[in-house]
Design brief:
Length: 273
């Protein structure tokens, strides 16, 4: 077995995508996997996906959908781009809650907020919240603060459904400190160590302009991190979404690989939020 480590996120009850990604991981001889949550939501096979993660004994932290199914709709701080999108979200939450077995609900309820290994931290959204989006263009100092306050070198996250690797390096901060009883401020320079934020993207609902499922592979020896894309039977999951009676726009999103939400009754509107 290889020493490399796979990180997956946002499976979203998409069994075909989850099976394809796990097969791709197995084919590489990777035995260590960490999941960043959101096992359910949007997709048509919540029990099957949760059961597969449980059978594989994959260490998993709790995602916002996982929390929301257990604690109720008010638990989620995520915003919807329109009232229609919010109605669809609530419909999917109720459907998923009705489908999940009590055993699988208990599993989701017991998931930890974070997982840590040496200088690596694994979260769904951010160290502060499962619902915070760490976007690739986030202010550099704010991004660095998230990693530094966690006390790690690399922060793995999901939630945005957009995979990226962001290195925060080569910086320094100069501070002037006016001490009591002195006329001249004391200057201090702090050199910032290299830190990384790695977003694993999404296995079950990619939104990076591509229908392929994504995950990342980390080599703990070299420190190399690579984003992998995996083909799966998108049409199969889309049909299962429709057969389950879930909003058909969920199938549309899978077929196109990006976020979609209309305003008012304009079905052609693509949300730019």
């Amino acid at each position: 077995m290889t020493m490399t480590h796979a990180v997956i996120s946002c499976l979203h009850a998409n069994l075909a995508a989850t099976e394809a990604v796990l097969e791709d991981i197995d084919q590489q001889g990777i035995s260590t996997i960490t999941c960043l949550g959101d096992l359910v939501g949007y997709g048509p096979q919540p029990n099957e996906v949760v059961q597969l993660v449980r059978e594989r004994a994959i260490p998993t932290c709790q995602g916002c959908w996982d929390e929301d199914i257990i604690d109720g709709l008010n638990a989620c701080e995520c915003s919807y781009p329109s009232q229609l999108a919010e109605k669809r979200g609530h419909r999917a939450h109720h459907w998923t809650a009705d489908q999940l077995t009590e055993e699988n609900k208990a599993f989701l309820a017991g998931l930890p907020m974070t997982l840590r290994k040496d200088q690596l931290l694994f979260v769904h959204g951010s160290p502060n919240s499962q619902h915070e989006y760490l976007l690739p263009d986030m202010n550099a100092f704010a991004a660095l603060e998230r990693v530094e306050t966690a006390g790690v070198e690399t922060l793995f996250c999901g939630h945005t459904h957009q995979p990226y690797i962001r290195e925060l390096s080569g910086g320094s901060i100069q501070v002037k400190v006016q001490a009591r009883g002195t006329k001249t401020p004391r200057e201090e320079t702090m050199t910032l160590p290299m830190r990384r934020i790695v977003n694993a993207g999404s296995v079950g609902e990619p939104r990076h302009g591509n229908t392929k499922a994504t995950y990342v592979v980390h080599d703990p020896i070299s420190g190399d991190i690579n984003i992998r894309e995996v083909d799966y039977d998108v049409a199969k999951t889309c049909q299962a979404i429709l057969d389950a009676g879930l909003p058909d726009v969920f199938a549309w999103r899978l077929r196109h690989g990006f976020e979609y939400a209309e305003r008012a009754e304009d079905a052609s509107h693509v949300c730019e939020r």
